[in-house]
Amino acid sequence: LTYSPDILGDEESLVRFAPERKSHFRPSDGSVKPKAFQPETRVHHERKVTETSVSRVDGCVDKEIWQLGDEACRNRGKVAQGYSQIAISSVRKTGLGVMIDEPPLRHAVINDWPSDESEIEARMKLLAAEAKFVHRPQT
Amino acid sequence: MGERPGYQYLGSLIARIPAEILESIRVPQYYESIRDAMDPLAELVNQVERGEHDLSEMALMTFRGVVEFAGELLLTRPNSIGAPSLDVRDDGRIEFEWYESPRQVVSFVIGPDWSMVCSGIRERAVMTARSIFVGSWPKEIVSTISAIAD
Fold first, then answer.
1. How many angstroms separate the CA atoms of A52 and A77, rounded?
2. What is the CA radius of gyration of chain B?
3. How many of the other CB atoms lie within 10 Å of CB of A42?
4. Is the distance from CB of A23 to CB of A84 less than 8 angstroms?
5. Chain B residues within 8 A (CB-CB) of chain A?
6. Are B62 and B69 in contact (CB under 8 A)?
7. What's the pTM value of the predicted model, to 2 decimals?
8. CB-count exposure of residue B19 (10 Å: 0-12, 13-18, 19+)
9. What is the pLDDT of residues A73-96, one digit of tens each?
10. Residue of A34, A78, A118 lying closest to B117 (CB–CB)
């Protein structure tokens, strides 16, 4: 297993849950859309931080993954429809960082985004190029 | 089709074309070319108005604020650039994208201030540009798109 609670290893994978299938992947070829990794800017301890919220799912069985996804999508009144999965090594290759950000359990953020908006957009594309989309099985 | 919000917008754009221009051209043919150019926007407007993109109220306001700008861009697209696909971001901004593959893609996002934030990748090479629209497509945006889109 590549999951260790306190260490973010290069081999570990991160997932970004999608409340809508069509918003995060292209039906034409199944590829991930860059906007799946769109960061959000929020105020944390009186300073602005720009981060993309992700989950660490290595070692989880499917049921646990979708529980994490439903929790992540709950604030939009949705359940997870799928997720974009990417290795931490791929995130770091783009010059971005990853940081554990619990609670909730297994939550992390992609951080160290550049301040320039066009550079942010370019990194979103680089992340999407390395990611794969996993659909939630129909029940 | 004429009752759908996107086509209402299209109709309002055509209504703004000066009469002397309309009289000097073959209207049905011109209408068709405008309709073809505007179709992706009309479809996106209809999707958003049907709630398919789950936008917040604030994002909806932003979206409605950039639709006109998106229409202007579609109507003034340089011939050297192919037709883009359109999408909406969670914050309501509209994205114009030229997609070849995950590693060859270029797009720009437009904002209510008529800004254009452009970025593209070709394998690991990255290109970026940003500008403000003042009636025609900025050269730096056109050259970035041309360098990546086939």
1. 19
2. 16
3. 10
4. no
5. 52-54, 87, 89-90, 95, 99, 101-103, 105, 107, 109, 117-121, 124, 126-130
6. no
7. 0.86
8. exposed
9. 888 788 888 999 999 999 999 999
10. A118
Contacts of A35 in chain B (CB under 8 A): 87, 89-90, 95
Give the ipTM of the model, two decimals please. Answer: 0.88
pLDDT at B5: 61
Exposure on the CB side of residue A60, measured as CA atoms within 13 A = 19
Rounded distance between C-alpha atoms, residue A4 and residue B44, angstroms? 43
> B120: distance to nearest CA of chain A, Å?
6
Q: Which chain A residue lies closest to B94 (C-alpha atoms)?
A: A35
Q: Do A34 and B129 touch (CB under 8 A)?
A: no
Phi-psi region of B117 (alpha: psi -120 to 50; beta: other; left: phi over 0): beta
Count of residues making up chain A:
139
Most distant pair of Cα atoms in chain B: their distance: 50
Give the pLDDT score at B2.
Answer: 43
Q: Exposed (0-12), middle (13-18) or buried (19+): which is B30, by Cβ within 10 Å?
A: middle
CB contact under 8 A, B120 and A122: yes
Element (H, E) at A105: none
Spatial neighbors of B108 by CB under 8 A, at least 6 apart, are B95, B96, B116, B117, B118, B119, B141, B145
Collect all residues of chain B within an 8 Å Cβ-Cβ radius of residue A128.
102
Closest CA to B67 of B42, B50, B30, B104: B42
Give me the percent of chain A exceeding a pLDDT of 90: 71
Residues with Cβ within 8 Å of residue B120, at least 6 apart in sequence? A122, A125, B105, B106, B107, B126, B127, B128, B144, B145, B147, B148, B149
- Which one-letter amino acid corresponds to residue A91? V
